[in-house]
Each structure stands twice: as structure tokens, then as C-alpha cells.
Amino acid sequence: MPVKKWLRQYAVALPVLTGIFTLSQYIKGYTLKHSLSFALFWALISLGIFAATRAWNFHRNQYCALCNDLPEKNNDNQPR
């Protein structure tokens, strides 16, 4: 599995998601501390679900154009 590639991508996605979630909660009127804890929780949940789904699809050898983890083949798993 391309674990190094995935870890780099998640290292970028975590602060981006945290920033988006923090800003959205702060704009709603919550305190910065509450907004940050909310953001970290949901960023980790979101990335965990995405990582598990991605690992499962990689394990099943299912092509994903967005993930680009497997070489493109002409098989039945690809969308047309």
C-alpha cells in the first residue's frame, strides 16, 4: 500500500479541514476553544472514514480516479 503517499496527503488535509471547521463554528458564534475542539474531532472522524474507505478499495484492487493509487486499466470497476 502507498502508505507514505497517504500520510503526506492526510498531513495536508488535517490542518485544512481543521481550519475550515474551526472557521465555520467561530462564525456561528462559538468560542475559539470550542470551535477548535469541534474541528479537530470532526476532521479526524472525516479523515478516518476516508482513509478506511480508501484502504478497503485499495485492498479490493478497485480503481479510483480521485485517489490515483492504482494504475488505470480497462476493467469493469471503472466508471464509464
Distance between the termini: 26 Å
**Helix-strand pattern:** HH
Radius of gyration: 16 Å
Q: Rough shape?
A: elongated
Q: How would you sum up the major sheet? A: none
Strand percent estimate: under 5%
Care to count the β-strands? 0
Number of domains: 1
> Can you count the helices?
2
Structural class: mainly alpha
Mean pLDDT: 85
Estimate percent helicity. 55-70%
Give start-end ranges of low-pLDDT stretches: none
Would you give an account of this structure?
The protein is mainly α and 80 residues long. The chain has one domain (3-59). 66% of the residues lie in helices and 0% in strands. It has two helices and no strands. The chain has helices spanning 3-27, 32-59. It is elongated, with a radius of gyration of 16 Å. The mean pLDDT is 85.
Short précis:
By secondary structure, the chain is an all-alpha fold.
Task: Record the SSE blueprint.
Layout (H helix, E strand, L loop, with lengths): L2 H25 L4 H28 L21
Helix pairs in contact: 1-2
